[in-house]
């Protein structure tokens, strides 16, 4: 009895090792069994043959390249298994299936099929007692499918071909069902063994079901899709994913979810999409599946794809190997590649729905296993940019520069952030210089010089001293000339060169380069706008008006163009025409706000996954709206883009949020802030227009409207001062201008008008100080020079006054209707 008990215990230990895939240990235990006991010798032959085969496959996955090696290495395993299969005992079927697997490894597909015929797979028992038996039968179906696929058909009959395909897909589907059932049973078995402390924690066990089954499970839906039956392929993916989840099926679920998401994103549209149907399964034995009335059913292909990818992301981040030691390098690479594939698809799906915040959150979770992985870091940076988290994006891009020091795109992207969003001009120049380290032969060298020129030009505006400004403007001009020399056909370098020349008041040359830029890109809105301003600087108002009308036919909703058109109409036609244009701007803003705010908010409330549908339906030109990126922060009278002006805009925005805390619409979202600030610009211009028409009641109403939006804005204080000044209430006007300057010390218009109010109040000394400050801020403003001349004349400084008037006259000859700097310097 003691001998039989020892044999039973060894057999139990061997079966545990077989389930765990510990083949070396199982073979050692088998050799300890006594061959003198009846029936044990057959069992020993089976175990030794099985262990030899499985250990070989573990080290050498089946492939055509490994067939020769299999023939040399599997002789002993084949001998043991043949002994068992020929005895017709209870292990003979399993031995025959393993022999078929062995022949498949050797590339003997016909022999493998012949063995399957002797076993009769279709009559397999309904109740399989062990996970290992399930695994053997599942692999048998998979191998049978592979063998049929490998053997060329004997004839070209269409009927025979269809039957062959049906047989192959049937084998793969049956293999997949049995494999999932095996994983479910395996978890149940190990949960029981773990509870009895017979094995270690489940997390420590091998989860891989083997390359044969893993490929077969994926093959069944892919086979349908390859043969043109997309609907059945998607249905098969869904059936596999409906299987009740087990710890051992996590990696497989990740792969299937990712593959189905990719199929949905690439091959399915809204019209062809069919939601999944939840039906029972009559096949027996089959894996347990999720059923019930409360199951979530997606409404569209993007929603299903997102759901799958979010599930895959959870698995990928949980399964990622964090240990970066050499022995875990291969596992770490595999898990990282799986995760990267998921995140790339997630980026496609979420960008399509404009869900940039969610995307950046997903990439942030990926950071824990993406140490020094450039692709994920760069994608994270791009998602942060799209989510308008610019400061953080810049930090990530800085890290990307360290990971790929020779990649020119990264520092150029960082420079773009510094110039267009963060106003960190010095940092932007450093990034542009880093991009130039690649040399003038690099394809992006021209754009790197454009970035450098933009940085110099923007930094020049901040300089207090004339010599510093001139030096930086010269550097900017040289950079743009170099960019043009490297790529003579690049419209962007031509545009920036023209804009720089315009700022330096070299109008003729600026017009020449602007027309050349439009030759290469006739629809470039900023070149069109610049040419309008250049023509107005030449006092060619009629041609400027014709051009801006033509530009508005292409970009009818562009508020920046419309504001310039209104200024031209005020000069060329009459203020009433400009009023009509302002009314049109208000209507455009109203349409945009209703679509972009109300409809988007409603969509978000009704269905978070459909938040971008309002954007898709919007008739407002998003590209045109983007063109106001910088001009919405710009004083259009002077084009001030100083850091002080931007800081003041941010400060007064925060102050206004507190003062108008009851207006939730203005505070709700950054996009909403931006939208309402556009309205603020329109009201400010309308107020000035009404002042020019001497319509005080209407001007007061405009001031009230903009004060309701941003009560503590320096621009509101300025326009209120203009109203008081027009009413000759100079003390009240003085207080308003002082308030504006206290918020934004570089607001040239406030300094200029404060100077004139002080002049009216007979305080010419202080007026001179204010106007000299204004001239120093904006040396190309002819109004500031003219008013300074008036004050100096009043003070008895006739020579200084004459020089100021001469300068004002000279500048006025080349002054556009609005400052050239209202045109944003964009790197695109």
UniProtKB/TrEMBL annotation:
Domain Tetratricopeptide repeat protein 7 N-terminal: start-end pairs: 4-362
Any Pfam family hit: TPR_2
Keyword Repeat: yes
Cellular component GO terms held in the UniProt record: plasma membrane
GO biological process: phosphatidylinositol phosphate biosynthetic process; protein localization to plasma membrane
TPR repeats: 714-747, 748-781
Organism superkingdom: Eukaryota
Keywords, in A-Z order: Repeat, TPR repeat
Keyword Repeat attributed: yes
Gene3D superfamilies in UniProt: Tetratricopeptide repeat domain
Annotated family: Belongs to the YPP1 family.
Stated role: Involved in endocytosis.
Protein name (Swiss-Prot/TrEMBL): Tetratricopeptide repeat protein 7 N-terminal domain-containing protein
Species for this entry: Potamilus streckersoni
